[in-house]
């Protein structure tokens, strides 16, 4: 039988074709598998590269951002100085930096400082000024001569580390100087190169750098480099320790990326700024990236590298899964085709079996793809058609009816924020004929957003034209969210400020965070496997821990304060929260403890507690604790039926100690007084310091007033002593004590203290070292006085005081020689008040000095204004003794003169109230000498009324004596006052002093003063005090009275004074008489027995006859005077009853008689004025009669 073709054995060519086909299929399938593996592997690598680039950029931006924040801190410092218009004080700088809370808001910053620029000639004065603040060992370092210096004067916080830089001359270091010059010339911040900070010690030395921002003089131009150099006064700057800075910025080393920072482009040990502490070396890192950090005036080079943790996190088994699955399919296909070629006889049976195997393998592959969420897609680039498999439709939440195979169908599904980026990536892959890798978001029809990972590859024809693109999509939403949660948890754990401990169910530590090491000092490797008991301090007993664990097991939570011990043995307080993590079976799987170091807060609370109840300087109870003890003492007095003495003490002489020796000496004195008080009291008594030099003593168990006096005597005498206050300097100090007895003074505690305070003021008014028992009426007076003083203080602040000016004239020459500044109170309700209405309340009080300083300043301001108007006039300013004897009075006066350089010192005269009791005449003399050395003259006011006028005249180098108005006012009617005035004029002439009289109220006063040799005068008869704006016009219009012009310059002899008095008295009588004779007047004429008329008659008949009786001019006066006497008698008898005609005739006779009398009297005065001396009286001289 003939064999058919089907049954014939295969030929050699057929067998060869079958074998080649099998190998070709295997090769093609291997290529497809390789492509799939390559696409997946490329995606994994690209994702890792993108993540690495993100981490690098994040670290870079955080560093640059934090440096920008630090720059704003410096700009805030410059703005603060600019707002002041002057360099800030140490207190202002401390307040400013403290308000920034840099440790909280700007971690990593070492401090904020201010450095002043100094030319060599200002160096010594600068060092002295800083030492005067209490820094006795302050110096500008390094020591040496330089063309210019800088000195760090403020650096806050002013802790032990920053104190090492106090006074350092940063300009002496070339690296720092380069940055400072750059900042100065540009007006912008500048970063220095790598330096070792002055704050470094031998331990934990770190690389450092500084940031500078220049401070220019307020108002100075700064448009050019030269202008900025000329206007520079200092720098606001901050030092940084690199390791501390990086911890502040990044919270320690990042777990995924490490980096190394170098100063500039060079990378060596000298330029190294910072290197991460990671487990991999830079050379061994899989990924590295170099970046430049551009800072103000400086560039840093940074090299970032990946860590093993990063590589582990970015690794993926997806490429291996694709490769294994693909190889399995490839081998199966090869085996099928090979079997077809070698075993044709069993092809149908084997084909069915292989088909089943292929189907099973395909299903496994599809199952693997389904489990991996992988969908396959294809884009026909020639037709614009898109093919999706079922998994793609499922991935995008669509079915076949919603997808039409258009590219726009896919684009609508991509998130709007990602679509442009993804399209660009696809276009780039098509253009280059390469692969497409991207991660993006898609929006499902139900509104959900999913994260998708896409990989694809573009295929081109032999001509290079794109044909299609094939790829896969995978849903990575769960992975993305898991990675985000893991990253967040790791970041919180590593960067938390609080320490965190995680233990297993047996309390063995399995992990701690970096903050744990910072707080306890233990490294992580030192505590793993141990229990938290290694931290126990021993301050808590077993019952404490038993209660803690009982609550933790009962509630799964415990919170409280615990004292633990650091690795170095130091105790610290921590606020701790412990939570139990359940295992799902009712047990505990983990314990998590979170704690904060609250040691400083606890110490601060204890410090505040002590500060709240005790005085920081003396250690005595303060006002708060006094209130508690006073309440207890009052209750004890009521309970035991005894008396409580509440004593208010104020030290006598404390202010001079402060003024003379400084506040440190004052503090030393207060400490000694506090110790003395404690030694003088019984255990049952109490003492407290209220502040300043004021103390309160509570004497319990006082039986009666006598016992109280004995206790006060003991207290007063015990405090009265000479204390050493500074080195060998001593001060005699006593105490004024005010006392009130409870319950005799049955009021509340606060009122008891006020009553004792009021009594103390009365004691102080009685003299030093006195005590006084409270009295209600005296208290009322004191209250009124205090209210007045308080109102005056407010008036000073409100600017309610003004100066009026009373002119001084040369009565002989008829010119204005000066003006006295007299204070007035422009009271808003009571109007303009004279000095008598308010000055007694402030004399020798605390307000005397500020009020006096205001008077000096305002007078100089007014002088400056007058000088601008062309008026040059000398101004006298009244100075109280308390003001004059204050510390550095002459220096304050010199400062006033500096404030008004246009005012010559010669235009200022100080009038010292001579009636003031001066504590130290020699000291006052020294102060006056200092004032005169400044060019300021000094006058003794109210001369003749003081305690020891001759002593003052001899010891005080005053230029002028001012005769008190009380003598001048009454010298026309009181021969004694006239004699005193003449005596003062003689004293001034003998001591070569100028003399001026105040109280010139009439022309007669001026004439008499001129005749006794005083030609300078001041008073209402010349001008009343007037506002400053009225004085220039008054000066221009002033004219010398004619009567003063007629008085001879030659003074009369002293024996002629009675004649002057008699003449003035009689003239006054005549003027009154003439005034009464005027028509329509209601004035009653002076009678013949008027004292003025009799006084002249007595002089004429007595002393006048003896001294001038030999002169014919004197003899001619008698008849004229007798005629006036008779007419006055007639006028008195007929006044009111005579007819008009008779009265007119009588008046005419009286006027003629007056004229004749004055002519004769002037003739006698003329003889004496021409220098004709009267003859000495003879024994035969007989008194004349009138």
TrEMBL record:
It comes from the Bacteria. Its main location: membrane. Residues 436-488, 558-610 form the PAC domain. It is found in: Membrane. Residues 642-776 form the GGDEF domain. Residues 344-371 form a coiled coil. GO terms for cellular component: membrane. Residues 140-303 form the CHASE domain. Residues 361-433, 485-531 form the PAS domain. GO terms for molecular function: catalytic activity. The chain crosses the membrane at residues 20-39, 321-341. GO terms for biological process: signal transduction. Keywords: Coiled coil, Membrane, Transmembrane, Transmembrane helix. Residues 785-1039 form the EAL domain. PANTHER family: BIOFILM ARCHITECTURE MAINTENANCE PROTEIN MBAA, DIGUANYLATE CYCLASE DGCP. This is EAL domain-containing protein. It comes from Denitromonas halophila.
């Amino acid at each position: 039988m003939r064999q058919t073709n089907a049954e014939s054995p295969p030929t050699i060519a057929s067998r060869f074709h079958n074998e080649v086909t099998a190998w070709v299929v295997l090769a093609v399938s291997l290529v497809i598998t390789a492509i799939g593996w390559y696409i997946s592997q490329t995606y994994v690598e690209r994702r890792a590269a993108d993540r690495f680039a993100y981490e690098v950029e994040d670290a870079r931006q955080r560093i640059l951002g934090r440096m920008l924040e630090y720059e704003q801190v410096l700009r805030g410092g410059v703005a603060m100085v600019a707002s002041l218009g002057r360099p800030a004080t140490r207190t202002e700088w401390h307040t400013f930096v403290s308000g920034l809370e840099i440790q909280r808001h700007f971690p990593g910053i070492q401090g904020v400082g201010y450095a002043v620029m100094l030319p060599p000639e200002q160096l010594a004065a600068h060092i002295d000024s800083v030492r005067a603040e209490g820094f006795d060992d302050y110096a500008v370092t390094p020591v040496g001569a330089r063309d210019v210096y800088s000195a760090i004067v403020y650096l806050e916080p002013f802790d032990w580390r920053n104190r090492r830089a106090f006074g350092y001359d940063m300009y002496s270091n070339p690296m720092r100087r380069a940055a400072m010059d750059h900042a100065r010339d540009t007006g912008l911040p500048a970063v220095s190169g790598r330096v070792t900070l002055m704050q470094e010690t031998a331990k934990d030395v770190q690389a450092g750098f500084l940031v500078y921002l220049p401070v220019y003089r307020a108002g100075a131009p700064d448009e050019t480099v030269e202008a900025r150099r000329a206007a520079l006064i200092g720098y606001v700057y901050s030092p940084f320790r690199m390791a501390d800075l990086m911890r502040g910025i990044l919270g320690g080393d990042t777990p995924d990326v490490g980096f190394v920072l170098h100063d500039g482009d060079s990378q060596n040990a000298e330029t190294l700024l910072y290197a991460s502490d990671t487990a991999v070396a830079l050379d061994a890192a899989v990924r590295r990236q170099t970046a430049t950090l551009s800072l103000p005036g400086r560039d840093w080079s940074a090299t970032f590298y990946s860590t093993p943790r990063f590589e582990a996190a970015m690794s993926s088994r997806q490429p291996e899964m694709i490769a294994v699955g693909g190889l399995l399919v490839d081998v199966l296909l090869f085996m099928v085709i090979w079997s077809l070629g070698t075993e044709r006889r069993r092809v149908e049976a084997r084909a069915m079996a292989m088909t089943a195997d292929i189907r099973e393998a395909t299903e496994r592959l599809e199952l693997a793809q389904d489990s991996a969420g992988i969908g396959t897609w294809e884009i026909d680039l020639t037709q614009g058609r898109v093919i999706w498999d079922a998994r793609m439709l499922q991935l995008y939440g669509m079915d076949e009816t919603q997808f039409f195979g258009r590219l726009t169908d896919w684009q609508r599904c991509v998130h709007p924020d990602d679509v442009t980026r993804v399209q660009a990536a696809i276009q780039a892959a098509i253009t280059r004929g390469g692969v497409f890798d991207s991660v993006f978001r898609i929006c499902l029809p139900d509104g959900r957003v999913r994260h998708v990972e896409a990989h694809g590859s573009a295929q081109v024809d032999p001509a290079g034209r794109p044909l299609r693109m094939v790829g896969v999509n995978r849903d990575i939403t769960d992975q993305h969210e898991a990675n985000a949660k893991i990253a967040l948890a790791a970041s919180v754990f590593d960067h938390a400020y609080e320490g965190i401990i995680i233990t297993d169910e047996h309390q063995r530590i399995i992990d701690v965070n970096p903050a744990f090491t910072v707080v306890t000092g233990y490294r992580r490797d030192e505590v793993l496997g141990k229990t938290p008991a290694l931290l126990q301090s021993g301050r808590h007993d077993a019952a404490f821990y038993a209660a803690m664990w009982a609550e933790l097991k009962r509630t799964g939570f415990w919170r409280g304060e615990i004292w633990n011990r650091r690795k170095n043995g130091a105790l610290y307080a921590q606020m701790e929260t412990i939570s139990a993590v359940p295992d799902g079976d009712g047990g505990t799987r983990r314990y998590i403890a979170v704690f904060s170091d609250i040691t400083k807060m606890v110490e601060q609370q204890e410090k505040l507690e002590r500060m709240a109840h005790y005085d920081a300087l003396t250690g005595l109870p303060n006002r708060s604790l006094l209130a508690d003890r006073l309440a207890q003492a009052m209750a004890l007095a009521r309970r035991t039926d005894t008396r409580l003495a509440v004593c208010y003490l104020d030290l006598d002489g404390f202010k001079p100690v402060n003024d003379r020796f400084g506040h440190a000496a004052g503090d030393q004195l207060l400490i000694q007084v506090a110790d003395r008080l404690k030694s003088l009291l019984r255990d049952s008594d109490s003492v407290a310091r209220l502040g300043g030099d004021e103390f309160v003593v509570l004497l319990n168990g006082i039986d009666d007033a006598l016992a109280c006096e004995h206790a006060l005597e003991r207290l007063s005498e015990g405090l009265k002593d000479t204390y050493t206050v500074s080195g060998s300097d001593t001060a005699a100090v006593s105490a004024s004590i005010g006392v009130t007895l409870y319950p005799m003074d049955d009021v509340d505690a606060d009122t008891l203290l006020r009553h004792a305070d009021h009594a103390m003021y009365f004691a102080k008014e009685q003299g030093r070292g006195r005590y006084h028992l409270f009295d209600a009426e005296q208290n009322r007076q004191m209250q009124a006085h205090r209210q007045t003083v308080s109102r005056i203080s407010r008036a000073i602040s409100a600017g309610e005081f003004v100066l009026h000016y009373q002119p001084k004239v040369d009565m002989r020459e008829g010119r204005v020689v000066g003006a006295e500044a007299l204070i007035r109170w422009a009271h808003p309700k009571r109007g303009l008040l004279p000095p008598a209405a308010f000055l007694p309340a402030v004399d020798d009080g605390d307000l005397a000095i500020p009020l006096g300083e205001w008077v000096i300043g305002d007078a100089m301001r007014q002088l400056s204004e007058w000088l601008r108007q062309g008026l040059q006039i000398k101004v006298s300013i009244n100075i109280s003794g308390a003001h004059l004897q204050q510390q550095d009075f002459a220096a304050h006066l010199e400062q006033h003169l500096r404030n008004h350089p246009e005012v010559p010192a010669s235009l200022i005269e100080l009038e010292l109230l001579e009636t003031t009791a001066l504590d130290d005449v020699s000291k006052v003399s020294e102060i006056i000498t200092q004032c005169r050395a400044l060019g300021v003259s000094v006058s003794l006011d109210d001369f003749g009324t003081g305690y020891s006028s001759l002593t003052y005249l001899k010891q005080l180098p005053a230029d002028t004596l001012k005769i008190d108005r009380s003598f001048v006012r009454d010298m026309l009617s009181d021969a004694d006052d006239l004699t005193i005035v003449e005596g003062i004029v003689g004293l001034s002439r003998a001591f070569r002093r100028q003399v001026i009289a105040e109280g010139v109220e009439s022309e007669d006063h001026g004439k008499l003063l001129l005749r006794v040799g005083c030609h300078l005068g001041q008073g209402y008869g010349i001008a009343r005090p007037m506002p400053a704006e009225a004085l220039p016009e008054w000066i221009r219009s002033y004219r010398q009275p004619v009567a003063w012009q007629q008085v001879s310059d030659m003074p009369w002899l002293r024996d002629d004074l009675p004649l002057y008095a008699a003449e003035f008295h009689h003239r006054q009588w005549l003027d009154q008489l003439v005034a009464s004779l005027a028509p329509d007047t209601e004035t009653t004429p002076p009678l013949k027995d008027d004292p003025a008329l009799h006084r002249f008659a007595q002089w004429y008949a007595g002393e006048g006859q003896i001294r001038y009786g030999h002169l014919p001019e004197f003899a001619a006066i008698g008849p004229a005077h007798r005629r006036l006497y008779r007419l006055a008698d007639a006028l008195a008898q007929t006044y009111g009853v005579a007819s008009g005609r008779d009265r007119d005739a009588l008046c005419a006779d009286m006027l003629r008689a007056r004229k004749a009398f004055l002519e004769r009297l002037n003739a006698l005065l003329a003889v004496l004025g021409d220098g004709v001396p009267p003859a000495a009286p003879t024994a035969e001289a007989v008194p004349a009669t009138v």
